[in-house]
UniProtKB/TrEMBL annotation:
The lineage of its organism: Bacteria, Bacillati, Actinomycetota, Actinomycetes, Kitasatosporales. Residues 3-119 form the Response regulatory domain. The keyword DNA-binding applies. Gene3D superfamilies: 3.40.50.2300. GO terms for biological process: phosphorelay signal transduction system; regulation of DNA-templated transcription. GO terms for molecular function: DNA-binding transcription factor activity; transcription cis-regulatory region binding. The keyword DNA-binding applies. The modification 4-aspartylphosphate is found at residue 54. Keywords: DNA-binding, Phosphoprotein, Transcription, Transcription regulation. This is Two component system response regulator. Signal peptide: none annotated. It comes from Streptomyces coelicolor (strain ATCC BAA-471 / A3(2) / M145).
Length: 226
């Protein structure tokens, strides 16, 4: 059972997220919070597999709450809920190591996919979030959109064929175990490939690598969900 905490200052958003998660037999919402401080304390108390945080909350925002959670309970993966117009916050959260990014108005299946992915140790970017991150980076002086995509393809081309396969699956939100099963190798081999490709791409975490995969256009098809 995947234990989840939800934190958002809007009761209707929390109710909506809970309702979606309640449709999954393998997910259990163990706590809810209306601000970042409570979210951190409840994560310490309940130690969920995943914390779903609003990126902007009163008191302690989702980015700072995620940083505290990563320090206090590193086994809890963090998914950020965002709205349109929060691209700068997304980039901050991406740099801070958040593992998942979802649009509040996204499809319910994306929430379930994201929670399962992050619970399994993977990174998950909603396709719309990934597209916005790439476009925002281009718009803020990090290169034109075409230039970033070309640069990403060049970076990916420098990887080994197996590393490219792993990156494509990582970008689709698969965990190491899922990637291992898809490629018919042991999980330790996948971990080694992930470590290598992170270093060769010059990124710090799986979510940042997923952005490169989206920029390069090599996302693998999603596997069927249970």
């Amino acid at each position: 059972m995947i234990r989840v905490l939800i934190a958002d200052d809007e009761p209707m958003i929390r109710a909506g997220v809970r309702a979606v998660l309640a449709t999954a037999a393998d997910i259990d919402v163990v706590a809810e919070a209306a601000d970042g401080h409570d979210a951190v304390e409840l994560v310490r108390r309940h130690r969920p597999a995943v914390a779903v945080l609003d990126i902007r909350m009163p008191g302690l925002n989702g980015i700072d709450a995620a940083a505290e959670i990563r320090t206090a309970v590193p086994g809890t993966g963090v998914i950020m809920l965002t709205t349109f117009g929060e691209d700068d916050y997304i980039l901050q959260a991406l740099g801070g190591g958040a593992a998942g990014f979802l649009i509040k108005s996204g499809e319910p299946e994306e929430l379930l996919t994201g929670v399962r992915a992050v619970a399994g140790g993977a990174a998950y970017l909603s396709p719309r979030v990934a597209a916005r991150v790439v476009a925002h980076l281009a718009a803020t002086g990090a290169g034109t959109l075409a230039g970033r995509r070309s640069a990403a393809r060049d970076r990916v081309a420098a990887l080994t064929a197996r590393e490219r396969e792993v990156l494509a699956l990582l970008g689709a939100g698969l965990s190491n175990g899922q990637i291992a099963r898809r490629l018919h190798v042991v999980e330790g081999t996948v971990k080694a490939h992930v470590s290598s490709l992170l270093a060769r791409l010059g990124v710090d975490n799986r979510a940042a690598a997923a952005v490169v995969a989206h920029e390069a256009g090599i996302i693998a098809p999603q596997p069927p969900q249970p």
